[in-house]
Structure formats: structure tokens, C-alpha cells
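Page 42, continued from yesterday. The earlier attempt failed because a stray header line got pasted into the input along with the sequence. Redoing it now with the clean sequence only.
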Amino acid sequence: MRTKVEDINRNIYDIKNKDNYEFKIKKGLSKEIVEEISKQKNDPDWMREIRLKALETYEKLDLPTWGPDLSELKMDNIATYVKPKSDLNSSWDDVPEDIKNTFDKLGIPEAEKKSLAGVGAQYDSEVVYHSIKEDLLKKGVIYTDMETAVKQYPEIVKEHFMKCVPINDHKFVALHAAVWSGGSFVYVPKGVKLDIPLQSYFRLNSPESGQFEHTLIIVDEGASLHFIEGCSAPKYNKVNLHAGCVELYVKDGAYLRYSTIENWSKNMMNLNTKKAIVGKNAQIDWVTGSFGSRVSMLYPMSILNGENAKTEYTGITFAGKGQNLDTGFKVIHNAKNTSSLVNSKSISKGGGSCTYRALVRVSENAKNSKCSVSCESLMLDDISRSDTIPVNDIRTDEVTFSHEAKIGKISDKEIFYLMSRGLSEEDAKAMIVRGFAYPISKELPVEYAVEMNNLINLELEGSIG
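This time it went through. C-alpha cells are written below.
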């Protein structure tokens, strides 16, 4: 029986292709490097100016010191742009064989055939494949890579790019804005409701490099969308960096569900930023699974600007040996009758560390708002760690607010009870872990995203039993 996280058979995700690129920028970060990326992307002048301004901001900001130790990350050792030997393709047959085989093994084309309305696949710094069903195009839905959006829909991009997440938010947002490449752009017109999801998958192959994809989604008034994001990378002995950015605009009366499974390898620094601005009578639901990576700092945020706006966050984090996963959720209530529901769970084993770090802010004018937070942590041994660090900033008395936190180990009584019913100790522990994770995992779209199903099974079943 496998009993350690590091023993999990993740060979599907550890497929390594030869570092066979068309262009890889020299390591480090400078004005010349940023200008070269802009030149490679054939940026319009306004985007080049954003990049250079962001670089100036990056150089002025300090590394965050309140979370995990980031001293291992040396930008002088990171290549911020790697162009694979592939252009953007609309036919899967045209994708180069080595890249295609990687995505085939991860289950992307199969998932697309069965139950996805559109798929984007990014390899290192470039999107190599994008498709969307014809009937959605007829309804005016736009789903394409960010570079195409910059050139074909410049006014929409200008209005929204780095507006939800300002460039000076923190050092790695500024870095992202300077060197971003790839990512997805989605626009759902007023009143259009997508019955089946769109999915983007981000794969980092090149060692000692970074991935900085930008996702921009606009769900217009009365529209609805489910967007799925998957990420993975093979394991190397050198540090890799992921500093993506997700900006979500959920207009009045609209609905967005944003599901993410992050399965970075254990040499990855995952410093991602995700925010949503939510309008009147609108709702965003986040479903997040954080697996893998050496260090994660990830705190999705909902800004509830419209009356009756709602958000729900459902997340699970699994940390094993050598992992420090610092995750959580932020919500800002800025209008009357807004509501938020947070349900977070974490599992730590083998000396792994999980931290739930959260912010709930209810402003003075957010009267009659409701917020409920529940975070539960399960430690599977005596050497692991779990911390809960909530900040609750409530600025009005007319609010309903609750916060519940539970941290504990697997109960010996529960194990004894299950063993008395004929289960082995390993199977009993595995059943308890699966039961603990079930409220989260049942929200994940495993029925039509094969690679997500693989991740859940590998981490939650293979890690214990």
C-alpha cells in the first residue's frame, strides 16, 4: 500500500518532453527582456507601455514576507518566455506530435469530444490549440487566446485588462503584467446561457521557466457560464514559477462558476492571483483544488459591488512532505443584501503545511449582508501542520456573520469502528479522508473532465490507502 504523498504515481503528469522550443528568452528580468517579449508577441504600443510600467512597479515593490519563505525563488534563474515549436491551431491534428501526445495522455481531447463547449490548451508560454462549438459562435460568444483578443478586440481588453487586479496589487502581479503570455479570453453576451462548460488547460514543460498566462472573462448581464481551468507540470530539480492572473467580470444578473484544479509538481512556486467583480443580483461560485507545488500563495477574491450579489467558495488543499500551501479566500461586501458562503478544507501529511488565510470585509453601506465561513483541517500524522489566519473586518452592525474553524487528526475511534466492520487500517483511513473531502470533490466537474478525476483519485485515494 502507498502511504506517502510522494509515493503517488503521478507519471501521467510527470511526462517530460525534450525542452524543444522555437525561442526561449534569456533568464532574468530587465527592460530589454520585457521589450523582447513584447516584440515576440507583436504587441500594440498600448500593451507594450503597460508591460514597461508594470516592470517599474515590480522593481519598487518588496517580496511579501508574511507568508511562506520565497527566498528560493531567484528571478535571475527564471526564463519568463518560452515559445514552443507550434503555432495556434484550431485542429487537433495540426498540433505537433510531442505536444499532442502530452495533452492526449492528460485527457483533454477526449473530454472535449464528450462534454465541453470549447477548449484552450497552453504549452509553456503559448496557446497551441483553441476551439469553440459553432452554435456558440452564432450566439456571439467569444472564446479565444489572450493574444488574439488583444489584436481583435482591443477596446474590450483595454477596458478590463489589469483593472480588476491592479498592477500594484503585489510584486508578482506587477511581474505578471510585465511578462504575461498566453491565457484565455471569454465574452458571453447579454442573456446567453452556456449549458456546457468551457475549459482551458495550462501545461508548463520547460525547466527553470515561468508561466504567466492571463485569463479575462466577462459574463454580460443575465448570462451564465461554467469555466474550468486545469494546470500541471512535470517535476524538475530546479525551481519553476507560476504567476498567472485571472480577472472575472460578472455583470448584473449574471452567473459564473469558476472551477480550478492545480496540480503543479513539487518544484513549483505557485503565486497566482484571481479576482472577480460581481454586479447587482449576480453570483460567482469558486470551486478550487490545490494539489502539488512546493509553495502556493493563492487567495481568490470576490468583490460584491452590486446589491444582492452572491459568492460561494468551495476549496480543498492537500499538502505532503516539503509542501507549504498557503491558500484561502477574500470577499469584500460593498452593497446591501450581499451574501458569501465559504467552505474550505485542508489535508496535511508527511510534514506538509496548510494555511487557511482569509479576509472578510463588510463595508458601512453593506447593510443586511450575510457571511458564513467554515474551515476544517485534517492532519494525518504528528509532524504536519495546519494554521487558520482569518481577518474579519465588519464595519456595520446590520450584518449576519459566522466563522467556524476545526483542526484535528483522524479519530482513533472512527478507525477502530471501521476496522471492526472488516476494513483494514489503511482502507479505514482512506475512507475517512474521502469522506472528509467529499463535500468539496462532489462539486468538481469530474464526470466530464478526465484529468480532474485522475487528480482527485491520485491525491485522495492513492495517498493513504
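Notes: Confidence is low (pLDDT under 50) at residues 1-10, 447-453, 460-465.
Reminder to self: strip header lines before submitting.
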